[in-house]
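Morning!

As promised:
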Amino acid sequence: MLNYIWIGLLMIGFTFGIVNGRLDDVTKAAMDSSQTAVTVCIGLLGVMCLWTGLMKIAEKSGLIRIIGRAVRPVLRFLFPEIPKEHPALGAIVMNLVANFLGLGNAATPLGIKAMKELQSINKDKKTATNAMCMFLVLNTAAIQLVPANIIALRTSEGSKKPAEIIICIWIASVCATIMGIIAAKMLSAVWKKDN
Amino acid sequence: MDLIRHLSDYAVPAIFVVILGVAVLKKVKAYDVFVEGAKDGIDTIIKIIPSLVGLLVAVGVFKASGAMDSLILLLRPITDLLGMPPQVAPLALLRPISGSASFAFVTEIIKSFGPDSYAGRVAATMMGSTETIFYTLAVYYGSVGIKNIRYTLIAAIMADIISVIASVWACQFIFG
């Protein structure tokens, strides 16, 4: 999909450039933008390392597991179909907490493990269960404690208070998560397995 | 509102204190682990460079040609309704589809309007509060061979729409 979007942006851009007589600007923008991309990445490097380093400490110290145990009761409500003590629950908790802490590298393998566990208790292997739908909706609406790359970007562009938007991000993602849970719960009631 | 803004001053130091506090209690070699983790940060950034070059060039060309202005004009009725800065509207369309493309777009907005501008804040909030839906579904469902995803996409997009609206609303509420 991204292939089409990328080609589309460029082709539309060059077409508009010809029509609007702005080909000089377009050419200059192409060259400048590639330079900007590298400058941005170098600017992000420091803050990004700071957060990935800090989050690694959280991972090693067992903070992930501590938070994981605390949120288990909530999962009973979200995933009533999963049998108690099933390994799927543990993997789901770990994935969601890793996402929460912004540990992208750790979150994906844990999420895939959770999906494999959920698939083992799925009767129709081609069709998603309610638990799978809920798990993925939570993943796409995921709340992140420290949105590291956004803070890094704001820092490198000279924001007075780079972390200031953190509260806005928390509010917006909590709203999204609540909406996702409500939508998934309601749709699971009306959406029969065979359609 | 001031209270909430002060809360964000405390958020980052509090996260440091909690993480380091637990590390001390659990006798983790915090500095060694930190350095190890920071290397992941370098890997992540290095991996971003090629896609960011490709996408920033595409966004740059799209913008310089005047096509972006036309798109913004087209989306104007919706953005006005939501109170969204019109320049941010394309991001709302891009965010569920591609993480790197929307990051490139946020970079563009923050560069043109400044990180502490209204458009810059809304764009940053939108970027930070949603995920790339299509990628996540493809990776996770693909890993176990699920073909019929039932209502997953609908529920995820409903959550995404709420997050776009809430991003605008939260920025107005806190910084407005």
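The first helix of chain B runs from residue 2 to 25.

Hope this helps with the figure draft.
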